[in-house]
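Hey team,

Filing this mostly as a record. A colleague (T.K.) asked me to run one chain through the structure pipeline before their review meeting, and I want the input and output archived in the tracker in case anyone asks later how it was produced. No errors, nothing strange. Just documentation.

Input sequence:
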Amino acid sequence: MVGFASVRGFIDLHSHWVAGVDDGARTAEDGRAMLRALKAAGFDHVVATPHMRPGMFDNTAPALRSAFARTVDAIGAGADPELPGVSLSSEHFFDDVVFSRLMSDEALPYQGGKAVLVELGYRAFPARLQHRLHDLVRRGLRPVLAHPERYEPVWEDIEALDPLLDVGAVMLLDVAALVGKYGRSARKAAEALLEAGYYQAACSDAHKAKDVDEVAKGIEALQKRFGEEEASFLLTEGPRQILEGKITG
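Output structure:
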């Protein structure tokens, strides 16, 4: 898929269905089962975002492109109507090594090259985080912060994210947090961030097919508490704006 304007259902910006590269799908069949479940939950396009985290998941952009192609070929993505459309990016752990890759075109931004998914350590934000995110923005890459509701500084004060928003980062909700998948603190933070309007989009962060049960429950909770219009924005229009580089507001 070249553009996302034709996608009518949900767009998932964060999932782990590429086989054998991280803590997500182990086999191509696992990946296919995950994609089928996400399609049934309402996602018409699912971006693969395998981890790029040196020392834990030593994936490089070329290796991930190869693994993506093998998985797509094995499961028939693009030809099977039971599967959503797919594309490739990565969940970039924001350390010195990966930051250097992002600054030298050795990483995997979202299709279209306008935004990139980044992940932080849970306990504390790294030094110079705001400045480094600003560096990405100056290169034309909007940082998309994975699951901010899971970070301990955010549990203490959601305004810890304000300096990151100020330099152009956007926030991506793991929707299953709304039904307690990651514990009470993450759930409370997600609800507070939603109430305050911090999120640009919501995603599955699915690692296995059975995760999609909690994703579907999270979508239902989002719709029930925050309304159909907000849920539709976070699952469809918000992700589209990120991918097309047309974020408003």
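Quick notes for T.K.: The chain has nine helices and nine strands. Residues 10-243 form a domain with the TIM Barrel fold (CATH 3.20.20.140).
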